[in-house]
Amino acid sequence: SHILNNLSARRPRGSSSPIERLTDREFEVFQLIGQGKGTREIAAELHLSPRTVDVHRAHIKEKLGLRDVTALIRHAVRWVETRPEGE
């Protein structure tokens, strides 16, 4: 239930966050990365191939201006931790 609520939560519109540039699927992947899930777990949960998840990760890094996977994970975890519980 908690995961479904997180996945269905809409991103805030009106702020100038770079996260708004992510597609809905990239946003889902970003949230799951922030929840500590790995590529295989994300792929299974979203019914995607691990390669597709890796492509989404690359697009997210590019759109957010992050240089490596470590920066992506750090950014995603911080983002998830700063969201109110119901969001």
Comma- or semicolon-separated keywords:
87 residues, 5 helices, 0% strand, globular, mainly alpha
What does this structure look like?
It is a single chain. This protein is mainly alpha-helical and 87 residues long. The chain has five helices and no strands. Helix 2 (24-34) crosses helix 4. The chain is globular, with a radius of gyration of 12 Å. The two termini are 12 Å apart. The model has no long low-confidence stretch (mean pLDDT 86).
Q: Structural class from helices and strands?
A: mainly alpha
Mean pLDDT: 86
Structure annotation, total helices: 5
Order of helices and strands: HHHHH
What percentage of residues falls in helices of 4 or more residues?
A: 55-70%
> How many beta-strand elements?
0
The low-confidence runs, each spanning 5 or more residues with pLDDT under 50, are none
Largest sheet: none
What is the beta-strand fraction? under 5%
Distance between the termini: 12 Å
- Report Rg: 12 Å
Shape: globular
How do you describe this structure in short?
With 87 residues, the protein is mostly helical.
How does the SSE layout of this entry go?
Elements: H1 2-8, H2 24-34, H3 39-46, H4 50-64, H5 69-82
Helix pairs in contact: 2-4, 2-5, 3-4
